[in-house]
Amino acid sequence: MEDIGAGLFGWLMRLLGLAARSMVWLIVVAWEYLVVNLAWYFGWPICRVLSIGKFPRTDIGNGDSASLVEATLVCVVGVAVPFTVAVLLAPWENFGAS
Q1: What is the pLDDT of residue 75?
Q2: Which residues are CB-contacts of 56 (< 8 A; sequence separation ≥ 6)?
């Protein structure tokens, strides 16, 4: 009877370990896609317009080859600007509603 309990407990622990590893993998993939890729594609044109075409020097499709400083600045702008616009527009969310 102890063997059945130990086997069931071991199976349950393996299942929980698989679930935990899957969640970590999903978080890493979501971080890579949402923060890094989307922030680069949002921030690149904004930085390009604000710097009158001088920054970033890396093409929009080559974000992986950008330097760490360049990628960080573009991604910070890519996250900060849409967030700031959303915060500034929030008071007018129900502006026309009666």
Answers
A1: 92
A2: 44, 47, 48, 66, 70, 73, 74
**Residue indicated by tokens 């500034």:** 88
Angle between helix axes 68-89 and 39-50 (nearest 10 degrees) is: 90
Tens digits of per-residue pLDDT, 13-37?
A: 899 999 999 999 999 888 888 778 8
The count of C-alpha atoms lying within 13 angstroms of the C-alpha of 70, restricted to the half-sphere facing its C-beta, is 16
Q: How far apart are CA 72 and CA 57, in angstroms?
A: 13
The yes-or-no verdict on residue 10 having pLDDT over 60 is yes
In order of 83, 84, 91, 93, the CA distances from 88 in angstroms are 9, 6, 7, 10
- Measured CA to CA, the distance from residue 64 to residue 73 in angstroms comes to 14
Other beta carbons within 10 Å of 43: 24
DSSP state of 23: H
Which tokens hold the place of 84?
A: 């700031």
